Amino acid sequence: MNTSTLVSHINEALAAHGGGPLVTTSTKDGDDRSTVLGKLGGHDVRVEFEVTSGKPDPGHSVALFDERSGEQVGRGDSGATFVDAITKYSWNGALIDLGQNS
């Protein structure tokens, strides 16, 4: 999984809502799950990309966590691709939760 490309898509989505960028500090790549640690507006955040099992086709999910509180800020799900999951994510809601947007 190419997390740098996925982070670029996230940054495009954040910019469309007046937020970002997500600055990556580290990544852990796997076949079915990858994790990106970074900073978003001064907040330490974690983004998890996961291929979920499904038949006949697997699903794709993107979840954002506030590392300070441990709270999940939101989630985007799609059966097709990670880009679709990023598109379906409520980035404006995440920015509001993190205090980056009003």
Quick structural summary:
This protein has 102 residues and is an alpha+beta fold. The protein contains three helices and five strands; from the N terminus they run αβββββαα.
Topology:
Elements: H1 3-16, E1 22-28, E2 33-40, E3 43-52, E4 59-66, E5 72-78, H2 82-88, H3 91-97
Antiparallel strand pairs: 1-2, 2-3, 3-4, 4-5
Helix pairs in contact: 1-2
User: In percent, how helical is the residue content?
Assistant: 25-40%
Strand numbers in spatial order across the main sheet = 1-2-3-4-5
Number of separate helices: 3
* Residue runs with pLDDT of under 50 for 5 or more positions: none
Mean pLDDT reading:
91
Biggest pleated-sheet summary? 5 strands, antiparallel
Task: Tell me the radius of gyration.
Answer: 13 Å
Question: How would you describe what is shown here?
Answer:
The chain has 102 residues and is an alpha+beta fold. The protein has one domain. The chain has 3 helices and 5 strands; from the N terminus they run αβββββαα. The chain has helices at residues 3-16, 82-88, 91-97; strands at residues 22-28, 33-40, 43-52, 59-66, 72-78. A hairpin with a 5-residue loop joins β4 (59-66) and β5. The model has no long low-confidence stretch (mean pLDDT 91).
